[in-house]
Amino acid sequence: xxxxxxxxxxxxxxxxxxxxxxxxxxxxxxxxxxxxxxxxxxxxxxxxxxxxxxxxxxxxxxxxxxxxxxxxxxxxxxxxxxxxxxxxxxxxxxxxxxxxxxxxxxxxxxxxxxxxxxxxxxxxxxxxxxxxxxxxxxxxxxxxxxxxxxxxxxxxxxxxxxxxxxxxxxxxxxxxxxxxxxxxxxxxxxxxxxxxxxxxxxxxxxxxxxxxxxxxxxxxxxxxxxxxxxxxxxxxxxxxxxxxxxxxxxxxxxxxxxxxxxxxxxxxxxxxxxxxxxxxxxxxxxxxxxxxxxxxxxxxxxxxxxxxxxxxxxxxxxxxxxxxxxxxxxxxxxxxxxxxxxxxxxxxxxxxxxxxxxxxxxxxxxxxxxxxxxxxxxxxxxxxxxxxxxxxxxxxxxx
Length: 399
Hints:
Elements: H1 3-8, H2 14-17, E1 22-34, E2 45-47, E3 52-64, E4 70-79, H3 100-112, E5 118-123, H4 130-135, E6 141-146, H5 159-165, E7 170-176, E8 185-199, E9 212-222, E10 233-238, H6 245-256, H7 259-268, H8 283-307, H9 321-337, H10 350-360, H11 374-392
């Protein structure tokens, strides 16, 4: 089984889960670092500006635009760098750059999410690529990306200059999540928005693209930030039409959903699976492990959301029919052992599955107890998949 085949399997149940929905296809990249020495590189290339070695994981999550429910993985890529590239980034064709992953994964979304009513591909600054703006959007697929560059505009001036000419038309206070060195806090944001016409850059590989692309700039700027705190300043470009303040705030709210893929990476690493502790000795095996663990992390996100009541989804979004049968048998056993601890959720709902997996992971099931976290669910999933494997073999007879 190759890592490519494992990644193809990420989206097996996602396609059905997105039918008829407006889906936010959120993509991002994370560096996965592993312990190495000069004598034991484990076949891994450099990451983190060359100070350590590891692999890079690029993943896309499908998220319901209305309620933020995680609907599953869409696609992505995992790789390790073979060495340093000496040709300047600006002189290389897009096909020779790592940044092509943003376009490749968005194209994958068009196929995997074909049953969705609408697709909005969301990404951070590194995805601000002219070829993406000029070639990907259509009547069904939209883009929403945070601005990386102060781009030249076709009608004169630059993007930042155009933003400065816009007036703040509305304000709103939002709750910022803790991130990196930032503490959680409320922030009052001022909103401004307007159309912009990006000019095609003079770079290799862009000559066949349109001379200009029409987009909308939405800017949310923190007003009166606390002393010695970097203010929030989101410059967002989108292909969605923006007619009023409500539509502009919707763009900001959709962009805030990008936090979910950061949570996926945290579950994969420090707050759950701890994949960076692996002692596997070859890059090929480590990349396959990342592919398997990423799927497990996405399942954990499903279960966490169900536990918190954030998503009303069926267990079939994550588990196949035989696995659901196994879950039902485990649930019956737990309830026989402790009649006072009944699974309070409807049969075959995601919350029902989350309750069972948490019990397998060591949670006591009492409503008054602390809710199960990612590590408990991880332990539960480990046990469950072993049990489910045996369950699928129960009717197999040998001669």
